[in-house]
Design brief:
single chain; mainly alpha; about 0% strand; globular
Length: about 400
Amino acid sequence: MLITARGLQGIGGALMFATTTAMLNATYSGRDRGVAFGVWGATNGAGSALGPLVGGLLTEHAGWRWIFLVNLPVTVLTIALTLAVCAETRRPGVRLDVPSLLAFTVVAGALTYGLIRAGDDGWTAPGTVALLVLVAVALAVFLVIERKVEHPLLDLRLFRSASFSATITAGLVLMAAAFAILAYTSVWLQGVLGLSPIAAGVALLPMAVCSFLVSAVAGRALQGASPRWTVGIGLVLIGLGSGLQSVVGADSGALGLLPGLAVVGIGVGLAIPTLTAAAMSAAPPQLGGMVAGTLNTARQLGYALGVAVLGLVFRDTVEGHVSDPGLVEAVAAGQALRVDEVREAVAAGLHAGYLVAGAAGVVGGLLVLWLVRPAARAHAPEAAVPARA
């Protein structure tokens, strides 16, 4: 029931994320658009990082069910505000590409689950191999459909633009490098250091604060700057911040994470607002919804794949530092984390995860700095996506 309900939440979140950025792009122009994306980015980044703190408060004082129930009044208020102030931005005559939607859902789901199964059963296990084969088949089907249909879910010709391709890749890498590792940081803070849910949320607060402040400033102050620099440097900072957090050891405390979290937050705040603007500027305005949906999909897929990949790194490292295989299962279940041997193993797993996340951030940033061109040259609507016959 919980998994099904979370799936429904995912559908709702996808609908909102894909349309909010397209609506901002259609509603605002010039400097106001930069400010709007800055506010959107600040809210988005701060919300992601504040989740552990708010969740900790609710779990500790109201019970775990309230992390879901709190959404109900927020949802009612949001619906009321949307109906009251948001204008319609519908594109007439566009039909939903259901076959492509189903094919790509299989790709994303099978790939994520395949990586998880590889960590448990190994890469050569029949279940893992079957899932990876399913990914390849579903991806081939998706690409064939997109080339044939009149109204594709994703117009593949957008990827002819190096700027667009690099921006979408940056969205995927950003979520994997900045946020996916937080799942394992929470294991360290609560399971090893023994912090309460609230204290663990407070320990992650520097990232949220830096992200919010930098996003709010960047939206206005850097409105005329090339996304090549803001997104590229932001990703490099995320990588460097993850590298700073990799100093964690068996004797480290929560304060040891603070400098790295702050640097990651600065990178997130610098990259997120201009990342959306960069994707929009690299494609025709009439494809704003498609671009927003593609970027959002890349970001969410990056988070899911990041958790899976870093989980592989974390588990393999822990297994290499623990003599009793049963202790690995205890770590997975949140037990025996304060045993000295397990404490050292978890610290080593977190160290390896931070290094992988840091490398991903730096490589992604360098890729953006290399491929993304100034907006004036990247945005050529007619050239980017020629009209279909």
